[in-house]
Amino acid sequence: MPELPEVETVLRGIQPHIEQQCIKNVVVRQYTLRWPIPRDLKQKLLGNVIIQVERRAKYLLLKTHTGTLILHLGMSGKLRIIEQHTKQQKHDHFDIEFDNQKTLRFNDPRRFGACLWVEENPLLHPLLKKLGPEPLHKDFSGKYLWQRAQNRKAPIKTFIINSQIVAGVGNIYAAEALFLAGIHPDTPAAILSLQQYNQLAKQIKSVLRQAIKRGGTTLKDFLNSNGEPGYFENQLKVYGRAGLPCKHCHSILKTMRIGQRASVFCEQCQQL
DNA sequence: AATCGCGCCTGACGGC
DNA sequence: TGCCGTCAGGCGCGAT
To answer: Within 13 Å of residue A142, how many CA atoms lie on the same side as its CB?
Structure first.
């Protein structure tokens, strides 16, 4: 499930193949993703050049002179760079073909992903305009989190996967950062100290940087733009390890549902 | 304003 | 073998 490090990995993989390249064809096979792919996508993209590829939260922004293609991988989306005329597989929903003979192909079994076209500033799009700060940016800090947490009754786990608080942190890295910070995931956000938030912000940054360095986490189905897995999963301390011994204290890791999501934690290392 | 729960969707897996 | 229920989950949305 792609979170910020996986999306960043995809960005770095596709960027050198598509930046400054002209789009010579677009093939859409499945228009119904999370939101419909615009019917006139081909018309909008044809002859256009991708001038820059950026990431905001888990969104990829492919900028052209006339507008921006906003892509989201949802739960199971994959973007691959392939040679043209590579045989299509199940759930290959659209292709963008370039003059350099490369094709950007989007595959998404669960179809929670998105492909949108905007002609105005993409950061002002309703999906992006309310996003909180990028966690790796310097304006994301313990003090910021602590200030936003005042009067919040939601569990800290729910608080940090809220994209309006901080962008791009999902279930995997929230669980990991809370473990590393020694904070129980069910703690009400408002009762944590500034000191704890400083530690949490530090660990969020650290775990995201480490994961990017290793090309992301492959648990079920994440593959980068070359079709290769990420190598962060063996670094995971708690996510996906319920029932196994804690790597730190060896007590058995527990799981609970917080905000409809499985949350793995260590009762010894993360006390309420 | 904050929070809750639903729905979208497919594949994997366990039980019978 | 096959069928059915459950789970996984990012994230917007409507209801409270």
So the answer is: 14
